C-alpha cells in the first residue's frame, strides 16, 4: 500500500469516527447524567516541546546517505489547542504549531546532495505554521482515594496543513555555509528536475498527526498535558532535495503544556468524567433514597386505584372478590368485608354541617395499618376539609382482645394513622384531632368475630 492510499484511508477513518462519535454523543448521552449541559466541554491549551526527524515506528528520513551514520538533532516546537468535548469518550480539537526540525549526517557519510564543490551535511526545516483538526479519543480515567478522576489517557488522529522551508548546510552546526535555501521562490514546484519558480517563502504540504498522551488534573480548571505525536507528511523534500527520490518524510514531537477548561466551576469537566463512578455516587445520594420512598407511596395509591377498578356489583365500595355480603342495598354502610354495620345511634349526625356521612375506617386484628379500600373515603374527606376549611375528630377503638392498656395504645395508633394520611393529603394538622378510646363504646358484641371486626375502627366526626 503506497503512502497516498494510507493517507486517504487515515483521513476517511478519522472523519467517519468524528462524525460517528459526535452523533453517538448527541443521541446516546445517558439521561441519568443530565446531558452535556451539566458539564464544561470547551478548553484551550498551550504547549511546547521538541521535534526529532524520526518516529517510534521507524524513520524514513531521506537526507542521510548512509543510514548507519544518521544523527538526530532536536528542534523547538510550540503551539495552541482549542477542543470541544462531545462525550466522555470523544472530542474534536483544533491544533496550531510552529517551530523547527533539525537533522545532520556524520562526516563520513558524505554529502546528501552535490552543489558545485560543496556538500550538504545538515538540514534545518523551519515550520512557519502547522494546523490540524484532530479527533481525540478518551481511553480511560483513573481515580484515587477521594474517588475524584485525576488522570486521563487519550489518543488522537487528524489531518493538517503545514507551511515549511528547509535549509541545507555544508557543516553540522546550522550556522553558515548554506548549500540549499528556496525561501522566496516556492510556488510552482516541478519534482522531476527539482526546479522552482515562485515568490512564496514557504511550501505548503499535508500531514497526518497520530499521537497519544496523558492529562493530569491539577485543579477544576487546569490540567497538565503530556504527549507524543508522529507526523506523517506528504512531502519528499521536508528536509530539502535528497538522493532517495519521492519517499515521504516523517517527524515526531514530544510536548508538555497546560490545558484550561472554560465555563462555570460549578460544572464538572466532561473530559475527566467517569460514568460508572457518577452512577455509583448518585445511587448513594440520600435524595435518591427519598425519591424511592415517595415512589413507594405512589405505588400504594396505585394499588388502591386498581382495587377500585375491580368489579363491584352491589355498589357498596367493596369488590366482589372480597364482598362477604353480596347484593347489599344501595346506600347501606358496610364494613371492610362488605357487610352492613349496625350503629347505636343515627349515623347521619357525624357531619351535620355538610350533610355528608363517612363510614368508619376498619382495621385488621392487632394492626394500625390502613387498608387500601379506605383510601377513597379518606381522599373524599380530605377534599371536604380543604375546600371548607373544616376540622374533624378521629375517634379510635379496638376490640376486646388483649389488655385494656394495650388496646388503648392500639386505638390511639389507629386514629393517628388516619390523621397522618389526611395531613399527607394536604389537610392542616391543627384541624385534625385524633383520640384513642381503647375498648370503649363497642358497636357490636366482642363475643363473636363478626362483632370484633366492627369494633376495630376509627370513627370520623366532621365539625
TrEMBL record:
Bias kind Basic and acidic residues: ranges: 309-324
Keywords assigned by UniProt, alphabetized: Cell outer membrane, Cell projection, Cilium, Flagellum, Ion transport, Membrane, Porin, Signal, Transmembrane, Transmembrane beta strand, Transport
Pfam families listed in its UniProt record: OmpA
Major subcellular site: membrane
Chain positions covered by the region annotation Disordered: 307-338
GO biological process, one term: monoatomic ion transport
Signal peptide per UniProt: 1-27
Top-rank lineage group of the source organism: Bacteria
One GO cellular component term: pore complex
Single annotated GO MF: porin activity
Residue span, OmpA-like domain: 350-463
Record's subcellular location: Cell outer membrane
UniProt keyword Signal present: yes
Membrane topology: Multi-pass membrane protein
PANTHER family hit by this protein: LIPOPROTEIN YIAD-RELATED, STATOR ELEMENT OF FLAGELLAR MOTOR COMPLEX
Protein name, entry field: Flagellar motor protein MotB
Organism: Sphingobacterium haloxyli
Amino acid at each position: 500500500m503506497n503512502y497516498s492510499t494510507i493517507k486517504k484511508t487515515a483521513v476517511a477513518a478519522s472523519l467517519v469516527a468524528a462524525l460517528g462519535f459526535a452523533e453517538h454523543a448527541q443521541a446516546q448521552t445517558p439521561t441519568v447524567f443530565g446531558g452535556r449541559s451539566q458539564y464544561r466541554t470547551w478548553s484551550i491549551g498551550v504547549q511546547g516541546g521538541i521535534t526529532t526527524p524520526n518516529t517510534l515506528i521507524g524513520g524514513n528520513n531521506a537526507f542521510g546517505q548512509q543510514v548507519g551514520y544518521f544523527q538526530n538533532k532536536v528542534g523547538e516546537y510550540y503551539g495552541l489547542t482549542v477542543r470541544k468535548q462531545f462525550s466522555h469518550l470523544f472530542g474534536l480539537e483544533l491544533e496550531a504549531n510552529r517551530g523547527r526540525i533539525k537533522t545532520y549526517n556524520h562526516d563520513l557519510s558524505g554529502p546528501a546532495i552535490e552543489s558545485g564543490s560543496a556538500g550538504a551535511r545538515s538540514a534545518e526545516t523551519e515550520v512557519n505554521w502547522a494546523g490540524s483538526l484532530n479527533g481525540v479519543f478518551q481511553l480511560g480515567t483513573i481515580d484515587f482515594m477521594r474517588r475524584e478522576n485525576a488522570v486521563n489517557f487519550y489518543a488522537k488522529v487528524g489531518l493538517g496543513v503545514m507551511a515549511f522551508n528547509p535549509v541545507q548546510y555544508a557543516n553540522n552546526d546550522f550556522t553558515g555555509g548554506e548549500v540549499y535555501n528556496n525561501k522566496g521562490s516556492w510556488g510552482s514546484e516541478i519534482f522531476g528536475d527539482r526546479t522552482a519558480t515562485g515568490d512564496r517563502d514557504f511550501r505548503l504540504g499535508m500531514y497526518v498527526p497520530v499521537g497519544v498522551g496523558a492529562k493530569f488534573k491539577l485543579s477544576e480548571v487546569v490540567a497538565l498535558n503530556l504527549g507524543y505525536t508522529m507526523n506523517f507528511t506528504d512531502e519528499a523534500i521536508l528536509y530539502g532535495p535528497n538522493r532517495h527520490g519521492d519517499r515521504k518524510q516523517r517527524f515526531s514531537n514530544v510536548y508538555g503544556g497546560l490545558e484550561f477548561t472554560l465555563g462555570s466551576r460549578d460544572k464538572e469537566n466532561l473530559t475527566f468524567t467517569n460514568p460508572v463512578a457518577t452512577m455509583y455516587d448518585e445511587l448513594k445520594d440520600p435524595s435518591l433514597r427519598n425519591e424511592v420512598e415517595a415512589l413507594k407511596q405512589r405505588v400504594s395509591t396505585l394499588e388502591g386505584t386498581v382495587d377500585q377498578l375491580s368489579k363491584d356489583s352491589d355498589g357498596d365500595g367493596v369488590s366482589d372478590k372480597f364482598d362477604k355480603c353480596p347484593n347489599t342495598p344501595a346506600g347501606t354502610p358496610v364494613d371492610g368485608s362488605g357487610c352492613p354495620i349496625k350503629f347505636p345511634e343515627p349515623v347521619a349526625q357525624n357531619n351535620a354541617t355538610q350533610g355528608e356521612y363517612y363510614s368508619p375506617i376498619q382495621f385488621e386484628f392487632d394492626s394500625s395499618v390502613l387498608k387500601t379500600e379506605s383510601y377513597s373515603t379518606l381522599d373524599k374527606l380530605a377534599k371536604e376539609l380543604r375546600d371548607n376549611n373544616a376540622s374533624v375528630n378521629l375517634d379510635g377503638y379496638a376490640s376486646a382482645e388483649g389488655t385494656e392498656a394495650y388496646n388503648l395504645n392500639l386505638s390511639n395508633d389507629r386514629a393517628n394513622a388516619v390523621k397522618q394520611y389526611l395531613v399527607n393529603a394536604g389537610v392542616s394538622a391543627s384541624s385534625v384531632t385524633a383520640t384513642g378510646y381503647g375498648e370503649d363504646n363497642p358497636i357490636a358484641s366482642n363475643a363473636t368475630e363478626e362483632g370484633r371486626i366492627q369494633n376495630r375502627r376509627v370513627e370520623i366526626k366532621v365539625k
